[in-house]
Amino acid sequence: MSWQADPAPQEHFQLGVxxxxxxxxxxxxxxxxxxxxxxxxxxxxxxxxxxDAPRLTGLRQRLDRHYLLAGSPRPPWPDLIPTRSxxxxxxxxxxxxxLPVPGFRGPGGHGYRTFRLGPRAHKIWTxxxxxxTIAQIADRAGLTLLDVQALCAALTGPELQALQLRDxxxxxxxxxxxxxxxxxxxxxxxxxxxxxxxxxxxLTWYHLHEITDGQTHFDDxxxxxxxxxxxxxxxxxxxxxxxxxxxxxRRAGALTDHTPVVEVGCGTGELARDLRAAGPTGPxxxxxxxxxxxxxxxxxxxxxxxxxxxGLALPFADRSVPLLLSNEVIADMSSVxxxxxxxxxxxxxxxxxxxxxxxxxxxxxxxxxxVGAWRFIQExxxxxxxxxxxWISEFGTLDGLPAxxxxxxxxxxxxxxxxLAQVAHACGLLARxxxxxxxxGADLTAQHLARSSWHAVRALARSRDHHLQxxxxxxxxxxxxxxxxxxxxxxxxxxxxxxxxxITRFYALWMERPAD
Length: 516
What we know:
This protein is an alpha+beta fold. The chain contains 17 helices and 23 strands. The chain folds into four domains: about 60 residues, no CATH class; about 100 residues; about 230 residues, 3-Layer(aba) Sandwich (Rossmann fold), CATH 3.40.50; about 45 residues, no CATH class. The termini are far apart.
């Protein structure tokens, strides 16, 4: 997208209409109302060449409704309704707005800026409620129509996109108010050492050397569902994630008060701490590849024991572990690109050979293979005691092909869970798959902070040197976490995107070694 907007030709469009090219599309923007229409460039070309063609009647009507065409009626300014973008926050104690900046977007989201409101503008802004007209706002604020129109004109352009002027009040979840017309979000760059010579993901170095602050790592670099829901949350009946998982393990007969537990890849240790706090008193061993995370876990879960080791080479005897857990770890394990149409070498050759040994049928298209997760299942099968159980969770699909996530600073690959269950069966384990939300008994209608509001309030906190943890905030918990007041935050169901990953994308694989 080019942000060099050009005036639209006045023989076809009203004065004050701008346009710019975005790939194959053209965006037409009304500079006063802040409303826009996106259409394919060929549709625009046909409209300019044949403005009265009958087949373009629908398009003309659509543009007419947005007051864009030269023959459109003039917008009825006093009767239009100023409508706030759902991405804008208000700082009531400072008489200012906190706005995302269109055209300034990195892998971590938008840049943000402060927009100061003078006394008149602040009075007008507080009167805007998405239902009052310009005339009603002017009357309520004791100001003139020109005062209101001046603020609207400052906030409706494509460089801010903070207001739209509409004929009718918006719907409660109007998508046009929940996003910017903006550049696509770029992917994070990938250092060469995070992939092997044939494209396989390889994160051993990353975990050993690049995780340098365990306390903030899951706030700033890779938030997990478990991290977002680590504090007690209404979605989990006011329990922390670890306690909810512990209850699920008890219901499944996998955990008793004295069951020894091995957890592989333990994050900050909050899951271990909260699972133990829910009752189990048996030995709890944490296995992690990151020295920094092991140190953080030791502070968080002081009654557990940490071991520096690779999950693919667990330091336990065969058939010795009664319960093994691994939460949101296996996407970090190596995935290998396989193209059946090309001769394989290196990692792809090993992946194909392993698939053959496990009796797996791979699709006849280029795709990623979760080889590291397969090998982890083999290792679990080696150490799991007769009658013992294992539980692992991760983001992925039941049958879809694995795909690499691009928003992180390191490659994680979604898991194909039906294939993982086949690996478990091939290793002699009983296996079943369940949605993570179902396992935890999560209430997907419980409210948490919307993703867009999280990005905005986190950027605001950073601008003030305040570290804000990545949690599934409720209004009460966010008020406790912020040292300043913010208005305009959005709250959405847990089934919608919030500070952490979308829980409905996650599954759990339950495995059990039959008793001898």
